[in-house]
Amino acid sequence: MPTPTISLGDYTIPQVGLGVWKVETNEQFEAAFNAAIEAGYRHFDSAQAYKNEQMLGAAWSVSSIKREDLFLTTKVWLDNFPAGRLKRSVDESLQKLQTDYIDLLLLHFPVIGLRKGAWKALESVKATGKVRSIGVSNYTIRHLEGMKKYASELPIVNQVELHVFLQQPELVDYCRDNGIVLEAYSPLAHGKDMANETVRKLADKYGKSYAQIMLRWCIEEGMVVLPKSVTPSRIQENIDIFDFKFTSDDLQALKACDRDLRTCWSPVHVP
Ligand SMILES: NC(=O)c1ccc[n+]([C@@H]2O[C@H](COP(=O)([O-])OP(=O)(O)OC[C@H]3O[C@@H](n4cnc5c(N)ncnc54)[C@H](OP(=O)(O)O)[C@@H]3O)[C@@H](O)[C@H]2O)c1
After folding, report:
1. Which one of 87, 98, 134, 216 is separated from 104 by 20 to 30 angstroms, measured CA to CA?
2. Contact 116/245 with Cβ under 8 angstroms?
3. Contact present, 181 and 134 (Cβ < 8 Å)
4. Where do the structural domains in the chain lie, given as residue ranges?
């Protein structure tokens, strides 16, 4: 069954994507990619910083999947924010990914002093057709509001850490109000809390795993979700989340699990 999608204007993004941060060897990458394709994933989330764009390019180009059936995301690393470097780095990403267009290109972090120029450069890269959509990652409301002063086009996506234990309701509301699709990274909180009583009870209630409850929460919040795994059984498990639905009581109980748990870098103090 195809994964549900979310509109990005004139095309769509599959709601579940495989995160590939820390997938570090060709063998591991190829095995994870093939398991993901088998399980129904068509969306892959890489980054210049992950140093595995070339592994993604190699894996998809020898697969039987057509380019137009894949959704490839990558992110511009901080060192490449100066305009000249950004444009060169996009060409390098295209080469590594073995494609002539990237579906979604994000600025990886709201770098002080450089993010405005980097966004303008991203807009001009988009105009060349090398990128279908542009967005940001790790942007807070303050960073997004700031963009209204200089952006010709606002980001279509903001990829941030989001999970049952870090729900960021103000940011979620802001993005909804401004037509920005949220992508939930580290949706399993890196496995740092796999013992929460509420999540466990819901897993028992629905005959699902702990991870599936965490991921389903993101789906019901209308987000794109990006679980990472190199374990074929987990890759399968992490997309098998579309055959049950929470009640409003379940959602209330999950809402109460929010405790501002950050497991990755925090952008909140970046002016
Ligand atoms: N934009 C950013 O700044 C940013 C930052 C962080 C992450 N991301 C993106 O988000 C993706 C996911 O985030 P993440 O890698 O930080 O963390 P995550 O997906 O929350 O957690 C990954 C960890 O959970 C384990 N796991 C996966 N499925 C599981 C399951 N069903 N049951 C139990 N454990 C499971 C994985 O182990 P195995 O692999 O060993 O199975 C791995 O150790 C990244 O790969 C990346 O694409 C973006």
Report:
1. 216
2. no
3. no
4. 5-255
pLDDT at 69 over 80: yes
Q: Which residue puts its alpha carbon closest to atom 45 of ligand 1?
A: 19
Run of H or E residues at 7: strand 5-7
Angle at 168 between CA 140 and CA 220, to 5 degrees: 120
pLDDT in tens, 85-131: 999 999 999 999 999 999 999 999 999 999 999 999 999 999 999 99
- Taking the CA of residue 234 as reference, the ligand 1 atom at the shortest distance is 31
Q: Determine if ligand 1 sits within 6 Å of the CB of residue 21.
A: yes
Number of H helices, E strands in the chain: 10, 10
Euclidean distance between CA atoms 190 and 171, whole angstroms: 21
Residue 267's nearest CA partner among 123, 149, 162, 134 is: 162
* CATH number for region 5-255: 3.20.20.100
Q: Give the residue, by CA position, lying nearest to ligand 1 atom 37.
A: 229
- Ligand 1 atom having least distance to the Cα of 187: 20
Catalytic residues: 50
Atom of ligand 1 nearest to the CA of 228: 19
